Amino acid sequence: MTVVSMTVNGKPASADVEARTLLVHFIRDELGLTGTHVGCDTSQCGACVVHVGGRAVKSCTMLAAQAEGADVVTVEGLAINGELHPVQQAFKEHHGLQCGFCTPGMIMTAVDLIRRKPELDEHTVREELEGNLCRCTGYHNIVKAILAASQEMR
Fold first, then answer.
1. Highest mean pLDDT among 17-26, 38-47, 131-140
2. CATH of 2-77, one of 3.10.20.30, 3.30.450.20, 3.60.120.10, 3.10.450.60
3. 106 near 142, Cβ under 8 Å?
4. CB atoms within 10 A of CB 101
5. Distance between CA atoms of 72 and 56, rounded to whole angstroms?
6. Which of 60, 122, 124, 142 is the most buried (most CB within 10 A)?
């Protein structure tokens, strides 16, 4: 067993886990933060995206031990004082979801995308979402939501 410590959503988090524990399982099973979803376990779907050190990563392909000492943000950590993050609000307003399974990963990817490329167009958003799969929406409203959030956040 290995003790893993990091900051998750602004709070210290520590647990004794097996060395092979994936970050997604540390977040869900040890911390009870179930907004980060386990989809494919192969880094294909993007449902598990979180931010580590300010960058979007797929937590199903990262060991918890690799996040030792890091600052991790999950979808639960985006809202501040009950106010949705602008990307969360845009997904709500533009119906950027259907079943909702991919939504946390899409939102986390979008937040990182907007941070990296604040001047977005539809083509760029669609290219950047290549690592996130949605089986329900056809992406139209997801793209619309991300573009709206980008405008709001400028």
1. 17-26
2. 3.10.20.30
3. yes
4. 17
5. 10
6. 142
